[in-house]
Amino acid sequence: MASHIVGYPRMGPKRELKFALESFWDKKSSAEDLQKVAADLRSSIWKQMSDAGIKYIPSNTFSYYDQVLDATSMLGAVPPRYGWSGGEIGFDTYFSMARGNASVPAMEMTKWFDTNYHFIVPELGPDVNFSYASHKAVDEYKKAKALGVNTVPVLIGPVSYLLLSKPAKGVDKTFSLLSLLPKILPIYKEVISDLKAAGASWIQFDEPTLVLDLDSHKLQAFTAAYDDLESTLSGLNVLIETYFADLTAEAYKTLIGLKGVTAYGLDLVRGAQTLDLVKSNFPKGKYLFAGVVDGRNIWANDLAASLSTLKELEAVVGKENLVVSTSCSLLHTAVDLVNETKLDDEIKLWLAFAAQKVVEVNALAKALAGQKDEAFFSANAAAQASRKSSPRVTNEAVQKAAAALKGSDHRRATNVSARLDAQQKKLDLPILPTTTIGSFPQTLELRRVRREFKANKISEDDYIKAIKEEIKKVVDLQEELDIDVLVHGEPERNDMVEYFGEQLSGFAFTVNGWVQSYGSRCVKPPIIYGDVSRPKPMTVFWSSTAQSMTARPMKGMLTGPVTILNWSFVRNDQPRFETCYQIALAIKDEVEDLEKAGINVIQIDEAALREGLPLRKSEHAFYLKWAVHSFRITNCGVQDTTQIHTHMCYSNFNDIIHSIIDMDADVITIENSRSDEKLLSVFREGVKYGAGIGPGVYDIHSPRIPSTEEIADRINKMLAVLETNILWVNPDCGLKTRKYAEVKPALNNMVAAAKLLRTQLASAK
Questions:
Q1: Which residue intervals define the domain Cobalamin-independent methionine synthase MetE N-terminal in the entry (predicted)?
Q2: Do residues 98 and 107 lie in contact, with contact meaning Cβ atoms separated by under 8 Å?
């Protein structure tokens, strides 16, 4: 019985790639240094899987930024603004597309399906001259082979690549991206031919868009693509991998009808209903790569339940044709539980990170082959039982409070227009008020202070003194820049979700449970293992301290319940909405304490609300109902004069704009600049928005500093579709990943642009 891993985390157990990337970007190390770190990480991953007994080991899942950008490079689909003149794409062009440079902005970045991982969106049009411009897939295969590991090279499938793209600037929005299929397939054929010549016997095409709601035209594109590739693929075993949701009956029929395909990879964790499709109709002689080990969460697999499922499948597809696999790439989980020395022993028994999931996959494959490790299965069963019966999981008072939420929609008593009037009388803000999203640069010194405090190397008094000094520096800078509504910069927080989770009951934390979000950006998701409550105030001290340093409004900064949920590893023993309601009640307590402490502007970030939207349209309404309700619960009890902000970043919001309005926040700040102001099209199409809104005026994920004129031009575009009295001026997102040398001039230009527009608007009256 064979085993397979869809993909593996790239950053390394101690974030080795992150530090190598940042050192290279800061010109502190060479390209050769970066490549050496990458080579060592790849080799260790291949060896680890080989040693664990995995038969089908992936290659080309490693990336310096993301796998879609790698496909863009392979196809030579570089937008003209980057000045690429052909040949093999190097780091300069590659990272300019990802991050921008001094003269041109980065490409759009958005969420990878419903995960917290991001990808760089390809910009395509009828005039793109595709060419084979990156040989990474073949090079990686050869490197693994030289180490004695015969891997399965992984490529983003041609149809998914096009469906994940967007028309380039200047290209008609109605342009059919799928019309480019005949232009990119010749490049795929070159890559496939090179892989065959190098000795590859298997190839994996990731076609995750198959799980979306696709019309017949889009499904037909899969058939056409693999018809065209069939002769080139001859002699290779071909795996089509799907993940993150069920396949529709139509998509499943399309998948199993594809020519030249040997095997199908299916997510049987998030796509449990697909199981019925397999049982009713599976093509004879084909392989099923059964994704029964969850690639998106950190709970130990219920091996007995998975083995039972696999035995059912074995009866359908045949013993020799069943391969045990992960549900998706392990990119979305932490690397290795071995590195967690501070986790509670009982909770640790309940968990499995990527390295442990590799072992689980192989254990299941061996059990199916009649070589069951009884001790391993018994220990797993004991851990499952421990988790179900542990008293630390359940808090009856919390469950009772959450159950009592039913029957109310938790709306504020006054409409938003009246509230904004009351707030303006209290805050006295100018038109086009300026603000930032929350965080300021996290300097090496600041990180050192937090690290030493956690390690008990400095006293609490010294820690508080250092954080207060940092807050004062941030407050003084904002006053110097003449920003209207200030933030304290969040110097006490390494991560917006981790910080709150550390202070809420029902959460556990890791030391090295890092997960890649984009590029070098890693997050360390908390683990929600039990019922959630707030034992004591979490932010009131720091917000009150910051407000005491200025006469200007100071925002209290909170993370909303839906974002805490979506950016955590969530317990899988109760519905997600129940956990979300519990978090909402905890945040509600904090909001009301901030108001009592004299904080008149409170931002409750829901950066990940769109991210959690199910992939199937039929499931949207239920999710949006409880997600929006959870947000309203947090602030339903505040006075009209307390201004509630929320923030959303880097997703496609246009399809949920009515739910965003239904959140009933007083002000929303939202990503806009990096996506070519796509958000504004909603308002051009007639959607009326009466609350305050701040579409981002510049992209903070790029080191590029926008000019005053560029920002003023963006604001003017906003004024063409939004009322002057509701428009705010702010960056796209928080500033923690930037340097002060970038932040100061960018914010200075932002404020100057707002003042320029105020003057122009006043003179036009």
A1: 3-316
A2: yes
* pTM for this prediction: 0.91
Q: Are 243 and 6 in contact (CB under 8 A)?
A: yes
What three-state secondary structure class fits 206? Answer: strand
3-class SS string, 550-619: CCCCEEEEEECHHHHHHCCEECCCCCHHHHHHHHHHHHHHHHHHHHHCCCCEEEEECCCCCCCCCCCHHH
Between the alpha carbon of residue 676 and those of residues 10, 97, 651, 738, the distances in Å are: 30, 15, 13, 21
The region that residue 76 occupies, defined by phi over 0 for left and psi between -120 and 50 for alpha, beta otherwise, is left
Question: What is the enclosing helix (H) or strand (E) of 293?
Answer: strand 287-293
Structure tokens at 428: 């006295």
Gap between the Cα atoms of 701 and 109, Å rounded: 9
Cα atoms in the Cβ-side hemisphere of radius 13 Å centred on 394: 10
Class of residue 755 by CB neighbours under 10 A (exposed 0-12, middle 13-18, buried 19+): middle
* Residue 241: count of CB within 10 angstroms of its CB: 27
Instruction: Confirm if 561 and 607 have CB atoms less than 8 A apart.
Output: no
Residue 178 in tokens? 């799928």
For 373-415, the DSSP string reads -HHHHHHHHHHHHHHHH-GGG--HHHHHHHHTTTT-----SS-
Contact 308, 274 (CB under 8 A): no
The catalytic residue positions are 701
Q: What is the pLDDT of residue 685?
A: 75
pLDDT at 496: 79
Instruction: Determine the length of the chain.
Output: 765
Strands of 446-508, DSSP E: 505-508
- With contact defined as beta carbons under 8 Å apart, do 570 and 298 qualify? no
Is 108:675 a contact under the CB 8 Å cutoff? Answer: yes
Instruction: Calculate ∠ Cα 526-527-528, nearest 5°.
Output: 115
* β partners of residue 645: 603, 667
Q: CA torsion sign, 558 to 561 to 564 to 566?
A: negative
Contacts of 454 (CB under 8 A, 6+ apart): none
- φ and ψ at residue 237, rounded to 5 degrees: -85, 130
Q: Where are the alpha helices (DSSP H) in 259-353?
A: 274-280, 303-317, 345-349
DSSP class of residue 241 equals E
Query: Do the Cβ atoms of 3 and 365 come closer than 8 Å?
Result: yes
* Consecutive H or E run containing 750: helix 740-764
Quote the CA–CA distance of 556 and 730 in Å, as a whole number. 16
Nearest Cα residue to 565 out of 665, 642, 659, 633: 633
Quick: pLDDT tens for 614-656: 999 999 999 999 999 999 999 999 999 999 999 987 556 677 8
Helical ranges in 482-569 per DSSP H: 498-501, 540-547, 561-566
CA geometry: angle 588, 591, 592, nearest 5 deg: 90
What pLDDT, on the 0 to 100 scale, is given for residue 478?
98
Query: DSSP alpha helices (H): ranges in 83-213?
Result: 91-99, 136-146, 158-163, 181-198
Residues in the chain predicted with pLDDT less than 50, given as ranges, are none
